[in-house]
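In this supplementary section we document a worked example of the pipeline. Step one takes a protein sequence of length 331 as its only input; no multiple sequence alignment statistics are reported here. Step two produces a three-dimensional model, which step three serialises into C-alpha cells for compact storage. The input and output of this example are shown verbatim.
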Amino acid sequence: MRAMVLDRPGEPLAERALPDPRPGAGEVVLAVVACGVCRTDLHIVDGELAAPRLPLVPGHQIVGVVEAVGPGVGRPEVGERVGVPWLGWACGECGFCRAGQENLCDRARFTGFHLDGGYAERVAADARFVLPLPEGYADVLAAPLLCAGLIGLRAYRMAERIARDARRLGLYGFGAAAHLIAQVAVFEGRRVHAFTRPGDLEGQRFALGLGVAWAGGSDQAPPEPLDAALLFAPVGALVPAALRAVRKGGAVICAGIHMSEIPAFPYELLWGERTLASVANLTRRDGEELLALAPRVPLRPEVETFPLARANEALAALRAGALRGAGVLVP
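The serialised model returned by step three reads:
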C-alpha cells in the first residue's frame, strides 16, 4: 500500500510503499477513503509532540471501509463504513477507565501517534474503538467530525458544566474544530463570538456566515462579557486574553493537545472564580454523542481535499492558516 511516512520530525513526509496491514485479534483492517488533517498531526510532524516511535504514519480522522476482520470481532463487519478517531486503545482496567475517563488512561494508545494512522491506503484498528458513521455524510465530510468535531464538543460540554450553561461563548482560532462547534452552539441557542488571527477578514466573514453573533481578531475584546471561551489556537498568549474576556464565574477551556508557553499574568484575571481548564483527548462516548448530534444540527463541515501524495502541501496550508475549515486527504 501507499503511505505518507514521518521518518524524522521537522522533515517532510515521505511517500512510500508499505506492506498491507493484517488484522490481529480484535482488530479490523480498513480501506481508507478519507483522512482529516489535524493540527495534532502538524505538532507531531514538526516535532512539537515527540512521536513515541518512528517511522510513523500520521492521521487520526479516518473514514474507511472494513476489508478484513481479525479473530474475536463481531462488529463491525466486512463492507461497513466506520471512523477511526485519535483514541485507538485504552486498558479498560485502570481507575480512569472504570470511571468513564478512558481519555486519561495512562496506557492509552493514540492513532497516528503510537499506532500507524490514516495517511495511507489501509489501516488496522482495534474494533472496539471504531465508530459507526451517520448516513448522509460523504466520506470527506465525515472525516473532520472524528477529531475536530469530537474535541470541539468535549470542550464545549466542559464549558457548559463549569460556567453553568454558557450562553455567550467565545471561540479562539476559527479553524476545523471551531467552525463545527460554532454550528452546534448556534443550533443550541448560544451567542457565539469568533476570534481569528488579527486581520483575517476572510475568516471573520466565514464565521459570520455560520451564524455567529460577532467576529473579530484575537487582539480585540468582544462586545460583551463571555460566559466561556474555548481556545483552539495553540497560542499560550491567548490564555490571559481569554481570561480578560470572560465574566466572573466564567471558564476558559484549552482544547488543544499542545500549546506554546502561557505567559505570566496577574492573579486578578483569574480571580472572581474564573476557571482555567484543559481538554485531554476524547472518549468513545464523545464520539457517539457527536455523531448522533451531527445530522440533527445538521453539521456542515467545510473541507478542502488533497490527494494522499500532497499531504505535505495540506500540512503546510494548515501551518500557514490558509485552510478554510478542514483539510482532508483522499487516497
